[in-house]
Write a structure and sequence with these properties.
The chain is α+β, with helices and mostly antiparallel strands. It contains 2 helices and 6 strands, in the order αββαββββ. The protein has a 6-stranded antiparallel β-sheet with strand order 3-2-1-4-5-6.
């Protein structure tokens, strides 16, 4: 598939999910926008977040090099609990039970 065809597939009939990885120290909790992942626009919110989580996790290859990913960094770990996915301007924190909507997790002071 050519680059043009890959981009057409990525940007047509999809929703963008932004992926933020958390960085913790003893005084703060900051997030870095590592990638945007594209999922089918026919998926409901939970399924779209689940697909984005799957696409932002290492399995056989570096996830950030996937065809449905626009990486912002050159290397990234897999998405894990405590990270944040943003879909339709709503932030969701990754938990062991799925995704919890969070209104203020990505403020200007911690991104």
């Amino acid at each position: 598939m050519s680059t043009l065809e890959q981009n057409y597939t990525k940007y047509t009939n999809t929703k963008k999910v932004e992926v933020y990885h958390g960085h913790y120290d003893e005084h703060s909790h900051k997030f870095t926008h590592v990638a945007s992942v594209y999922v089918s626009d026919t998926l409901n919110t939970n399924d779209a977040l689940s697909k984005a989580y799957m696409l932002s996790t290492h399995i056989d290859n570096a996830w950030y090099q996937g065809s449905m990913v626009d990486a912002i960094v050159t290397h990234a770990r897999s998405t894990q609990m405590g990270d944040v996915l943003v879909l339709d301007d709503v932030s969701y924190i990754v938990t062991r039970n799925g995704f919890d909507e969070q209104r203020s997790v990505l403020s200007d002071s911690n991104v």
